[in-house]
Amino acid sequence: MNTDKFTGKAFTYEKFRPEYPYRFIEYLFSTIGLSEDSIISDIGSGTGILSRQLLEEGRRVFCVEPNEDMRKTAEKNLFSYQNFISVNGSAEQTTLQDKSIDCITVAQAFHWFNVEKFKQECQRILKRSGKVVLVWNSRVADSPLVVENAAICKKLCQNFKGFTGGQEKNPVSFNIFFKNGIYEYKAFENNIFYDKEGFLGRNLSASYAPKEEDINYEQFTVDINSLFMKYSNNGSLTLPNMTRSYIGEV
Fold this sequence. Notes:
globular, two-stranded antiparallel ribbon
């Protein structure tokens, strides 16, 4: 895993990335049956978007993040939660104790991991019958807005390989990762509403998006702003989005 992909993007990521719908949070706790004493590890926790929602439910959360820029932003934003523990570690080497975690969450990050090594680490740190939750906020792929957005990224973002986000219901890596290939899939509508600044910021927060010093940065911002103007109404744009989760044992 390249831990530097999001260096310099923490502020934009934290400001413009969406939260997860409360219906997903309710489903998460009812499905896994976590008690008030349950311990969660949010791995690849970034700036702590999902971590905050878990902390608000009163759970103890170990936030494991290898990128210093992202981790320091989370520490600044979440320090007031007494159950927040920041961990400088990776998905493959969390540094957490054996059999110490009731549930692992991974938000917007599983596609960056070494699947086999992460699976081994989950097996090491999870308590018996502990579960792993993989979740993404993902654009609705066949939306005309999303199709045109992808075309801009393909043209101007060197490392763009398509929008990630668990868009396949049964991807091969999930069958390998989860025990006996068994997991529960659930999707929640989670359309996101942006003003012009927010839509540009969401696009710039991506790992593949050009930074200010890059040659394509200016053209990228121009094209994204033009796309906003095409699809917005009274200064607001609706980005078709789904929250997709996959829960199982490893």
